[in-house]
Every structure is written in structure tokens, then in C-alpha cells.
């Protein structure tokens, strides 16, 4: 039984409400991986240059991993990405054509809120811009050779009070 509307605006509102209900019901039946993929920009809507193909490798689950705002190439071809409001993650992208799944792991180093990342000289350089952590340029290293970044050192503090949200965003 559908509600009736006496005017066009009311009809549009009812249509939008019903559409939203259908979307919620459809998403509720999807697996977590399908829900994540459903939130990504469809590959068909991305234009690529001739000779290039677009493939969805991973769609960030915002509730668990936040909003990724930066990335760099790390050691052994991995990607290092940053959630603007919390942690860093290591992303291992599978080889083309293997059908393997992209692997994402949280980096255990005590740093986050990164707005700029650079891997150089066996270190990760991180620009942090957040009221939750001292704003500045940090160096993060693996000091015990186990492959995990474990040492965080502030190299240069920035005056975060004057910088604001659109402050330092690159290294």
C-alpha cells in the first residue's frame, strides 16, 4: 500500500523515500565485501586513456578504516595510506590477472592523522596536521628489522594553531 500525494512535490518526496528504503533493504542483504564495493564509484563511470583499464582493487570501509586522504609507495612495492582521523595502513595490491584479493593491514606505529606521506631512505616521513597529535614532520622507522614500523620521531613541529585543517598536506 503506497501513500498518495495531492501534489507533484509530495510525489517526489514519496518516491525518494521509497527509493531509500529499497536501497537499505538491498544493502542489508549484501555481504560486507559487497556493501563495500557497492559504495565505490562504478568502474564504468571512470574514463581512462586508451590502452589503460580501471579495476576496483579495494573500497575503504569508512567505519573501520576511516577516510583515506594520502598514499605513497613503500618498501617492496606496497602502498602506505593514511586515514585523516586515525591510523596508517599498509596495502599489498595483487599482481595483475591473478584474481587475488588486496591485503590491508593496520601499521602498529603510534602515529596517525597524516596529511602527507613519503617513503625515502628506509623511513616513512609523515606530515601530521591534527589537534589530537602534535602537528609537524615525523620520521617513522623499522628499528628491529621485523618489517614493522616501530619508531616515531618528531623532526620538526609546526604551529598547528595557525595552520588549520587545510594546512600541510605533502612532504
Write a concise keyword list for the protein shown above.
single chain; 171 residues; alpha+beta; four-stranded antiparallel beta sheet; globular; disordered N terminus
Secondary-structure blueprint of this entry?
Layout: H1 8-29, H2 32-38, H3 62-65, E1 68-73, E2 79-83, E3 88-92, E4 103-106, E5 114-120, E6 123-130, E7 133-141, E8 151-157, H4 160-163
Antiparallel strand pairs: 1-2, 2-3, 3-4, 5-6, 6-7, 7-8
Structure commentary:
By secondary structure, the protein is of the alpha+beta class. The chain is 22% helix and 30% strand. It has 4 helices and 8 strands. It has helices spanning 8-29, 32-38, 62-65, 160-163; strands spanning 68-73, 79-83, 88-92, 103-106, 114-120, 123-130, 133-141, 151-157. The radius of gyration is 21 Å and the shape is globular. It starts with 7 loop residues before the first helix and ends in an 8-residue tail after the last helix. The model is unreliable at 1-12 and 22-28 (pLDDT under 50).
Write the element-wise H/E pattern from the N-terminal end onward. Answer: HHHEEEEEEEEH
What is the general shape?
Answer: globular
Radius of gyration: 21 Å
Instruction: Tell me what portion of residues adopts beta-strand conformation.
Output: 25-35%
Share in helix: 10-25%
Q: Give the rounded overall mean pLDDT.
A: 79
Q: End-to-end span in angstroms?
A: 58 Å
Main sheet record = 4 strands, antiparallel
Number of helices in the DSSP assignment:
4
Low-confidence stretches: 1-12, 22-28
* Quantity of strands, as a count: 8
Amino acid at each position: 500500500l503506497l501513500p498518495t500525494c495531492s501534489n507533484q512535490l509530495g510525489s517526489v518526496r514519496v518516491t525518494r523515500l521509497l527509493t531509500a528504503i529499497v536501497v537499505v533493504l538491498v544493502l542489508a542483504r549484501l555481504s560486507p565485501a559487497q556493501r563495500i564495493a557497492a559504495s565505490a564509484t562504478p568502474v564504468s563511470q571512470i574514463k581512462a586513456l586508451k590502452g589503460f583499464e580501471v579495476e576496483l582493487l579495494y573500497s575503504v570501509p569508512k567505519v573501520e578504516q576511516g577516510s583515506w586522504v594520502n598514499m605513497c609507495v613503500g618498501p617492496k612495492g606496497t602502498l602506505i595510506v593514511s586515514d585523516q582521523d586515525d591510523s596508517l595502513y599498509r596495502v599489498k595490491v595483487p599482481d595483475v590477472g591473478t584474481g587475488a584479493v588486496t591485503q590491508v593491514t593496520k601499521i602498529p606505529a603510534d602515529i596517525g592523522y597524516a596529511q602527507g606521506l613519503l617513503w625515502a631512505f628506509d623511513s616513512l616521513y609523515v606530515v601530521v596536521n591534527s589537534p589530537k597529535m602534535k602537528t609537524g614532520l615525523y620520521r617513522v622507522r623499522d628499528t628491529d628489522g621485523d618489517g614493522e614500523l616501530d619508531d616515531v620521531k618528531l623532526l620538526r613541529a609546526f604551529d598547528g594553531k595557525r595552520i588549520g585543517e587545510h594546512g600541510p598536506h605533502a612532504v
